[in-house]
């Protein structure tokens, strides 16, 4: 499918809702959300500024300009998202020599349709009565015991009560401050599916993950429609950087247009020691055209998708760099919001396979075979334990 068709499909299936004030208005149209994003500017400071000085700097700047911040960033990039256009922000703050960029906020979406929608509709019937091992888990060498490992799922949240997931709700985070999405509980289903592939418990129900039984932490940056803003995703990345102590793997199965600020935040998270698995994207184009897929640096891996015959998925983004590995991403069975299982496709499903492998290999993954038909002519190795 051509990129334009993918974009049209996402627009039809994912009715976006803006973060913060708009979180209470789930009927917002895409046009309204785009307008609100245009009225938000991501202001980035020089990284030499101490994280301890950011709050004071931001308070002073906001007070002088009678403005409001949506988010403040201290642990990945240094800066804030302000409720004004970048033109207004430049006028208000442009004389500050410690500001390195003004970036308009933008829309971000899950890197797959929601469960039960479009061509990825679940046709599997009733959930299995007994535990199944999905083909992708076997393909990457799992399952293995992931006890003691931790995965940060930067997504739509996670079903906090799913019986097949070991969820740490106490460490959970939501970029939403009002409305139904302020809880890290999953209102969409995408994050729950991702979490299951990484770490579903090895028991008698549903499925088993690559790093079975590892702790999964819900970092909600996308709403119940599977959409959000770049400024909110950076807030989630910044939160993980503040609490992870360089431990675990952060899975980021979402994407949008090019955002240097988001790329910088993800690269800083990797630089802190947290392993980061990024979905390459589903637009059948060069992954360098999408953020955060294009982010590159220490402890960062971008993942394309293959089917059960190791054939490169027709929807998957490509390009070396930034793509490092391929992983199973077609007809992937995993945990479903509310219990049970669902099967669907996307590079969103490939990235968590890689995240589980990264957890269990401490960031030194192996590979087993190559993606067949990789359009960039440099076949991606298929990640494996």
Automatic annotation (TrEMBL):
UniProt-listed InterPro entries: Peptidase_S8/S53_dom (IPR000209), Peptidase_S8/S53_dom_sf (IPR036852), Peptidase_S8_Asp-AS (IPR023827), Peptidase_S8_His-AS (IPR022398), Peptidase_S8_Ser-AS (IPR023828), Peptidase_S8_subtilisin-like (IPR050131), Peptidase_S8_subtilisin-rel (IPR015500), S8pro/Inhibitor_I9_sf (IPR037045)
Top-rank lineage group of the source organism: Bacteria
Residues annotated as domain Peptidase S8/S53: 153-359
Residue numbers annotated as active site: 155 (charge relay system), 190 (charge relay system), 348 (charge relay system)
Signal peptide: 1-22
A Pfam match: Peptidase_S8
UniProt GO molecular function: serine-type endopeptidase activity
Region ranges (Disordered): 110-137
Name this polypeptide is given: S8 family peptidase
Species: Vibrio aquaticus
């Amino acid at each position: 499918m051509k990129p334009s068709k993918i974009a049209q499909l996402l627009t039809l299936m994912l009715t976006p809702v803006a973060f913060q004030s708009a979180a209470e208005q789930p009927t917002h149209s895409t046009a309204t959300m785009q307008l609100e994003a245009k009225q938000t500017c991501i202001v980035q400071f020089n990284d030499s500024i101490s994280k301890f000085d950011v709050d004071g700097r931001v308070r002073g700047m906001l007070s002088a300009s009678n403005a409001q911040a949506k988010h403040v960033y201290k642990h990945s990039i240094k800066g804030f998202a302000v409720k004004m256009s970048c033109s207004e922000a430049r006028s208000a703050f442009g004389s500050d020599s410690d500001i390195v960029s003004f970036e308009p906020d933008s829309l971000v979406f899950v890197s797959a349709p929601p469960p039960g929608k479009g061509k990825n509709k679940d046709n599997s019937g009733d959930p299995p009565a007994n535990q199944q091992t999905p083909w992708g888990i076997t393909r990457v060498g799992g399952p293995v015991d992931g006890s003691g490992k931790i995965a940060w799922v930067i997504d739509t949240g996670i079903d906090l009560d799913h019986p097949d997931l070991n969820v740490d709700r106490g460490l959970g985070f939501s970029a939403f401050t009002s409305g139904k999405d302020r809880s890290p509980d999953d209102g969409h289903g995408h994050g729950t599916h991702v979490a299951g592939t990484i770490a579903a418990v090895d028991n008698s129900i549903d499925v088993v993950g690559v790093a079975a039984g590892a702790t999964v932490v819900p970092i909600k940056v996308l709403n119940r429609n599977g959409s959000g803003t770049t400024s909110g995703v950076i807030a989630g990345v910044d939160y993980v950087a503040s609490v992870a102590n360089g431990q675990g793997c952060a899975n980021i199965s979402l994407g949008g247009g090019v955002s240097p600020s988001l790329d910088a935040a993800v690269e800083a998270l990797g630089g802190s020691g947290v392993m980061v698995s990024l979905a390459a994207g589903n637009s059948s184009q060069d992954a360098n055209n999408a953020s955060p897929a294009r982010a590159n640096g220490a402890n960062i891996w971008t993942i394309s998708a293959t089917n059960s015959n190791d054939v490169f998925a027709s929807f998957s983004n490509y390009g070396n760099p930034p793509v490092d590995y391929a992983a199973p991403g077609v007809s992937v069975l995993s945990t479903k919001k509310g219990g049970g299982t669902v099967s669907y496709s996307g590079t969103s499903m490939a990235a968590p396979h890689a995240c589980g492998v990264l957890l269990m290999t401490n960031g030194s993954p192996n590979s087993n075979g190559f993606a067949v038909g990789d359009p960039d002519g440099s076949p991606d190795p298929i990640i494996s334990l």
